[in-house]
Amino acid sequence: MSKGEIVLGCLAPHPPHLVYAENPPQNEAFSEGGWETLRWGYAKLARKLKTIDYDAIVIFTPHWQTYIGTHFLGLPEFKSKSVDPVFPNLFRYNYDLKVDVELAEAMHEETAKAGIITKMMRNPDFRVDYGTITSCHLLNPSWDKPIVTISSNRNSHYYSNEVMIEQAKALGEACMRAIEKSGKKVVLVSSHSLSHRHFVTEAPLPEDMSREHIYNHSQYVWDMKIIDMFRQGQMQEVVDIMPEYTEQTIAETEAGGLIWMMAAMGVPSYPAEIYGYQSVIGTGNCIACWDPNTETRELVL
Amino acid sequence: MSEDSPILFGLYVPPHPQPLLSPDANSGYANLRAAFEKCRKRIEESDADLILVYSTTWPSVVGHQIQALKESIWTHVDDDFHYLGSMPYNFHIDTEFAHEYCSAAEKRGLHARTVEYEGFPIDTGSVVALSLLNPDNRIPACIVSSNMYANRSETIVLGKAANDALVSQGKKAVVVVVSSLSNRMFTEHIDPSEDRIHSSKDNEWNEKILEFFADGRLEDLSQLSREIHGQIRVQKVVAYKPAWWLAASMGQHNNYLGEVLAYEALHGSGGAVIQLTPSSGSFGDKEFDEDDVEYYQGDRNVLNKGNH
Question: Smallest Cβ distance to B86: which of A66, A125, A281?
């Protein structure tokens, strides 16, 4: 068996607004569109994904929040309806997805060996979180690849952003070892926004783009700083600045997804591909990917 | 009870699923379960028209959300404690009250909305509370969210709006706050028989809060909320809000009969079942130094003004 590898790492934000705006048949709500900069960016990244040979998507989600260790989906299928508790008017999505349980168990085992508290989730009534569904739908609308969902252990809440970084690094490195041993080709997905301050009111028509803008200029400047570092391939610097960035922008990086993905990928020093940046109800959202293959890596935006 | 209060009594209950799913795993969980049972009987023996739940495990972002789906049916599974089992529920919601509460909140300057969607994910705390306190749906219920950005004035006004809506509809209610006391759990899986409060500090603060509750000093607890948040709450949200909402809905004073029915550890956090009943006697004379608020004026935009 050849050594497994990570063939792509994606930063894939999950505002349910983006699925709502697409009007896929799985979602009950209907929209007139909206947030095209992000949706078109997602469409372009989804096209790139179609050109890549891979076996599974492994996604780290902030919306399966666990306080007792890191949990992995551990049943082969999940079929139900996901209703966003915050935006139920936008997202009521009927999902039917497959899980690569073998890979999940391998990651669980490697993670436990690294001293991290872990748990397999094997309750068939469990409802898969909307972060997983939104990011996976937009990256792979045909849902023709199995996924592994990893919960986000909330070390930022219990300890500090620094502790979150250390644990997310250890988790990423453990997942990488599991992937290598599995012989599989894997796409990693870190599902989250950048700056994460929301407006607490919503326009009567949520997709009214005349009402959409970043929450404040400070959030915007910080987001641009981070994205510029993505472009420059300065991911170690991003890791270093993460505690300050997360605190200043209430960033969704607090869950540890980006650090997890960077650690698993060996902290890339090559430029990220940027597919778009736009605010959603005030939060800052960037679609980006890190392509380890120099032949397919490109300058997108 | 007070002659003019629409709230017969208030309950403070924990959100964790152990009392519902694994009461026999630990004598403490069984004590909490027994306390829930006692409250269930008291609700049944009351002439309440409604159970109104304020849940700290239902965070909202866009204003304040109020559950309004008449038949709320699903099977819930907790994010952390999924291995304890599933929680099927079928709750009867007082839709008319939900809309009245939403309207009352808007009249007081809040952004609020009802949610009426099949499959809406009712949170663990609400599922546990309503499953144990009202298992046969004898009384319709309503649930209100806890906005993650809301602080004191917004929460006080939200509590007053609940009272407004009850008065407007002439309904008697039991109000239920779903919240831990100290909320730091152990970060590893434990043998339930070895469960205990996470630290001595958390336990001491919990005991002090329970003294206040037992003395009926609800407004004193409301005034102490910021201190409680700093001392024993994991900083997931901006503030410890349950006492604000409870005091604002029931009455901002210390004239209550307090009864602590159980206090136990729930995976390290402090779980208590407490009843507060309006009375004519008062205990406590803390100086109240936080202003009351009747109408939510919105953000003051302090940061922007500082630039001019």
Answer: A125
Residue A214 lies in a domain: yes
Q: What residues contact A186, with CB distance under 8 A and at least 6 apart?
A: A4, A5, A6, A7, A54, A55, A56, A57, A58, A103, A179
Tell me the C-alpha distance between B85 and B88, whole Å: 10
Phi and psi at A58, nearest 5°, equal -110, 120
3-state secondary structure of A15: coil
Distance CA A57, CA A187 (A): 5
Answer whether B238 touches A (CB < 8 Å).
Answer: no
> How close B89 gets to chain A, by Cα (Å)?
13
- Distance of alpha carbon A268 from its chain centroid, rounded? 17
For residue B178, give the 3-state DSSP assignment.
strand
Question: Which residue range(s) make up the domain with A280?
Answer: 5-290
How far apart are the CA of B49 and the nearest CA of chain A, in angstroms?
A: 27
What is the CATH number for A170? 3.40.830.10
User: How many angstroms separate the CA atoms of A104 and A118, rounded?
Assistant: 11
> Which tens digits make up the pLDDT trace of B125-174?
999 999 999 999 999 999 999 999 999 999 999 999 999 999 999 999 99
